[in-house]
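Quick log. Single chain, no ligands specified.
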Amino acid sequence: MSMVLHTRAQTFVHPGGLHTQADLDRMKAKVAAGAHPWIDDWNLLVKDKLAQNTYKAAPAANMGVSRQRADADAHAAYLNTIRWYISGDTSYANCAVRICNAWSSTVNQIPTGNDISGLGGIPVFDFAMAAEVLRTYPGWAPADFTRFKNMMLNYWYPLCNNFLVSHNGSCISHYWANWDACNIGAVLTIGVLCDDRAKYDQGVNYFKNGAGNGSINNAVWYIHPNGLGQWQESGRDQEHAQLGVGFLGSACQVAWNQGTDLFGYNSNRLLAGAEYVARTNMSLNVPYQAYNNCDNVNQNYLSINGLGRIDDRPVYELIYNHYAVVKGLSTPNVKKMAQLIRPEHGSTDHFGYGTLTFTRDATASPYPPSPVAPVPTGLVATAGVSEVSLKWTAPTAATAQGYNILRSTTSGGPYTSLASWSNNTLPNYIDKTAVNGTNYYYVVQANNQSGTSDHSAEVHATPVAAGALPAGWSRSDIGTVATVGAANYAPVGNNTFIVSGSGMDIGGMADSYSFAYTGANGDFTITTRLANVNLASGGYKWGLVMRESLNANSAMLTVLLTGRQAQFGVRSSTGAATTWKYGNAYTWIPVWFKLQRVGNVFTGFQSPDGVNWYAVGSSTFAMAGNYYAGLAVCAKTTTPGNVNTTSFDHVSTAQK
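-> predicted structure:
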């Protein structure tokens, strides 16, 4: 295979954005030959609603009116262009031309609007990449193409440049990596599209040395001893972590096609990050280093939000084919993730269909990519209140796209299908259709592109109804509430309490919430897992409280969750204002809380697993030796009938 020395291009290659002429010709030839896996992805692409020649754009003078619709139009322009080039049907190219012309003849300002200075880089990046392919179509009139480039230079480049330069006046680490990443890609690709060396170099230089979180050394901010590179957003959620990987991967591909090797920059740092993110989302263990920024997000552990999803980030074929196939490097996790998603679909934020557009060798990218996944092991069933929780061990081979859950009321079956999915690797499921008092038998199967495994070993569990609170526990509404609360208990899930309540607040100078509590004396610890919530109002607070009395303005301490922010609150004397300290700003349910008193030192903790604990806050003040400790639920509303219900399990108390 012939290769160009990838140092610094002196002139621009066209087409040379996401794809070169050789790439386009390869796609066309492989589809014409019906070769796998190209044909499999082509068959998906032609069904995409954005890849239809009847698509109509919705241009706006101010792109900020809807960056999402602008990006959909960019995707449609790109997909129609690809469809034209492969099929030869010019009706698709003409559709792409209509989309681009509609926007270039309508836009007349630098975009403004909510989050546009930042995330507006997404449609700009995508339109630039789409236009760089469309320029190969002879039917795009030179005058129209020039107008499109002028739109990019005069209106959309300033948007992206301003964000990278100023970050809207925020502290430099305020914005997440993906905000920078889309703008890096946009600026770099505008440079290619418009033959503007300064803008191209600006994108390249920011990728390498930019101050914001999207530059590669900040996006992949920590290299673990095993070589995995922790992504800057891995403590936030997995959807955004994968989003940033995709944006920077596309930017690197554009630069590569111009002779600049950003993929290899700083010892293949992008690959280290992609390996980490891929492994995380195959539900395999990864190390984690606590992350913080100028906003004190306090991300002490890996986020569970979006964990295991393989349905929305088709970004791995590009990365796999470059690092493994072109460069011959080891990419164990990226390779497995590419295989799980193969053939790639499209998505809202990424063009996708990388199996068609980036696959270079059928042997390196087989389809189906692997045999039937192994039988799930380690299945455990845990009874709850009106539910049964199932957990099993994710296969280290990472060949399962999803699982089938089967249930019976008779040991050995016959089993009825309860749930099935092929777009998430997370090895757990909660059966919320279980009837209390019924003994259920469960088995699990793994599935992938090659079929379905045999079922696992059978497990069983019997859900129970919640009843009266256990001895020593009571419930009361603290302060004035719109609706009387309630609390029940079941001896499952290591002590499960179902607490409901309305009320306005936990905090301020006086409280208003539902409180299930027990008496405490001296040194005391209460621990729980916030397992599930049922919201009837938009506001909420729930967690653990220690309070001197049941009066609304009593001295008290709390560790709780409001929105996604973990907080530690202290009212140090009767009627005083509550002061707050902050834990993880991206706390997702389920989450564990612990509130501990040692002498007059009170500390609130949070944990992802009940094993590894992180202090949210601590305070020292004199509280009476006899007091109350318990579970608090607040709906933050005065509307009668609006009651939030929370399941607290693994509830334990320890009196010293």
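The CA atoms of residues 289 and 300 lie 7 Å apart.
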